[in-house]
């Protein structure tokens, strides 16, 4: 596997070529509310470019259907920046893929959903039941394991199946699964439809939860550091803007629902923003070593990581430490 990953590296082609009019930096993401700062960032940067201010390079959102596709695109250099699962970045760096986490993307946002008519009232009621997760690299899986530990259970006390999050609400509706653990808006979609309810939410059980992180290739940092700094400036500012008030969140919903971004029903996205308001939060995007250490410890216990990876190998804090204010007026 290491040889195959190393062979992919020469395929990397910088998306920003010297001597040409600057092309937009393509940033990959999933249509999930954990990635909501990305559409806001793209629109705010476009507004700034129209006014002729700041760095001349824009940002373009590239929608992916799953983490595996984003991973492959980053590995081969087809894209040089993306929102990624933090444990997956740790694992790729362990295999010498030249990536760095440069910002968080959100806080909280994962839920464990059960059928509205089920008898499950506490987590221990799920003993022996079939629970869907997006991936064993997903932090949702680590959330599930934390809930198991709090109930005095282990992964052996339940059945786990990996499933794409868009398929989870239908699987719960047909009782193909007993519960699912994932990020939004796939919990809210079933809840709003009336056939599901949350059994546990990270907002209540894991307040410093981090999952999706802004990740860039090291060659982008080396060759276009001002562009990376500008991207981090906008992502961090978008997070503060989103948490500044309901009017901003409502505008973000309208942006994200558009075809070029999430292409989703704005009513479902709005439900996530309002039920409750801190179901997903964005204002505190600090990168704290202790929180990443905790995430790594959980990943090692879950055996999704084979060995510890030094913080400095997969995180570049310099951009967050050198933040510059930018206007968010999407």
From TrEMBL:
<keyword id="KW-1003">Cell membrane</keyword>
<keyword id="KW-0472">Membrane</keyword>
<keyword id="KW-0813">Transport</keyword>
<keyword id="KW-0732">Signal</keyword>
<feature type="signal peptide">
    <location>
        <begin position="1"/>
        <end position="19"/>
    </location>
</feature>
<dbReference type="Pfam" id="PF13379">
    <property type="entry name" value="NMT1_2"/>
</dbReference>
<protein>
    <submittedName>
        <fullName>ABC transporter substrate-binding protein</fullName>
    </submittedName>
</protein>
<dbReference type="InterPro" id="IPR044527">
    <property type="entry name" value="NrtA/CpmA_ABC-bd_dom"/>
</dbReference>
<keyword id="KW-0997">Cell inner membrane</keyword>
């Amino acid at each position: 596997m290491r040889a195959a990953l190393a062979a992919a590296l020469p395929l990397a082609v910088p998306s920003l070529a010297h001597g040409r009019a600057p092309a937009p930096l393509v940033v990959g993401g999933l249509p999930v509310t954990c990635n909501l700062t990305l559409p806001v960032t793209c629109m705010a940067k476009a507004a700034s470019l129209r006014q002729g201010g700041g760095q001349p390079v824009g940002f373009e959102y590239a929608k992916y259907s799953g983490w595996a596709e984003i991973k492959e695109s980053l590995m081969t250099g087809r894209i040089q920046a993306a929102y990624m699962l933090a444990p997956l970045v740790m694992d790729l760096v362990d295999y010498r893929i030249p990536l760095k986490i440069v910002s968080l993307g959100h806080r909280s946002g994962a839920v464990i959903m059960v059928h509205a008519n089920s008898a499950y009232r506490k987590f221990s009621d799920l003993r022996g039941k079939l629970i869907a997760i997006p991936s064993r690299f997903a932090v949702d899986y680590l959330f599930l394991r934390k809930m198991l530990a709090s109930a005095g259970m282990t992964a052996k006390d339940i059945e786990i199946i990996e499933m794409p999050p868009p398929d989870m609400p239908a699987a719960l509706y047909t009782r193909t699964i007993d519960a699912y653990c994932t990020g939004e808006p796939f919990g809210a979609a079933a809840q709003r439809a009336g056939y599901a309810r949350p059994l546990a939410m990270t907002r209540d059980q894991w307040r410093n939860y981090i999952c999706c992180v802004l990740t860039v290739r090291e060659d982008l940092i080396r060759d276009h550091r001002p562009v990376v700094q500008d991207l981090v400036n906008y992502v961090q500012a978008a997070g503060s803007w989103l948490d500044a008030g309901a009017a901003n969140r409502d505008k973000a919903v309208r942006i994200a629902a558009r075809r070029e971004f999430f292409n989703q029903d704005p009513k479902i996205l709005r439900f996530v923003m309002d039920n409750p308001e801190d179901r997903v939060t964005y204002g505190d995007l600090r990168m704290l070593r202790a929180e990443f250490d905790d995430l790594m410890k959980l990943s090692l216990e879950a055996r999704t990581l084979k060995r510890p990876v030094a913080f400095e190998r997969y995180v570049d804090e310099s951009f967050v430490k050198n933040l510059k204010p930018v206007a968010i007026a999407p």
